[in-house]
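Reviewer 2 asked us to include a model.

Predict the structure of this chain.
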Amino acid sequence: MAVSSLSIVLVWLGLAPAEAEPPRRIALTYAAPEGCPDRDAFVAELERDLGGPVAVDPAAPSAVAILLRAATHGGYGLTLAFLDGAETQLVDTLEDATCDTLLGVAALQVSLALQARPEPPSASPPVVAGPVAPEASIEPDPAPLAPPPSTTEPPAARSRPRRPSGVRIGGGIEAFGAGLQGLLGAALSHRVGPLDLELRGAWAGPTRYRLAEGDAPAVSVQLGTLAPFACYRAGEGRLRVPLCVGLEAGALRGRGIGIARPATDHALWIALPVRAGVQVELTPRGSVFVDAEAAPLLVRPGVRLRGVPTGYRAGPLSARLWAGVELTFGKIARTR
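Predicted model (structure tokens):
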């Protein structure tokens, strides 16, 4: 009797302990690349924003789909969808340098969307203000019926294709003191963070260089090079602007023309190529590009041939114009 009376007094004074807040129920679809926070970290961040517990329930009327992915030009991208029943309340796409920032933004947006919808009815009996007679009994309300499961599933979020590696094939023209020469080249590239590391091989076809006017002997000049590059691709969507710098080494080959016993000579070529251009994506795995390139020579090669009175020496700068295609490889990551 004493315990019952004490409980009545505490209720009357408003000092009875408050019942635990029921958790917010959501149906959650979550995917993130390696190195980004997992689903539990998102739920914990959402609980901090809501100020209460969150329960993941596939039958909940509020459905949330979250996809974190590695962006093609560095950093990470976020795709967020929030559905309440059969209505889509929120769809958003964001990009940032870190996953943690995007996770915090996603949790904040979902918490605001959840707070905007009405709270589910509580099954707890109402607290009666004022004193209650010992003989009075309070019968709890019947528990509310569980809402029917949502028939609308969150849309499957798909990431853009990852592009860890690729190949570039192109041609063009080059000038470095012996007139215009035809160019052929191929390169392998690999994505490391925000940069594309590239290894290119190129060949400038033979061009006749006349050492003097008239029928004097001439020199046929051709060039083969190998160059590693580091490239940053600026831009959004299907349009990119690659900016590249590299170190090029190769050999210049010269052969005499118009002499009785033609001879051949080779010389070392070292240059510092800088390249900029425009790249347009035609498909997720294919694009076309046009590049302009300038390569100041650190070592200017020259050839001198037996039977030719004068020699040939390359100019201080090589100017090039490229055009071609790029193919990229890698699996397309999908969430389930």
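Residues 165-329 form a domain with the Porin fold (CATH 2.40.160.20). The first strand starts at residue 24 and ends at 31. We have added this to the supplementary material.
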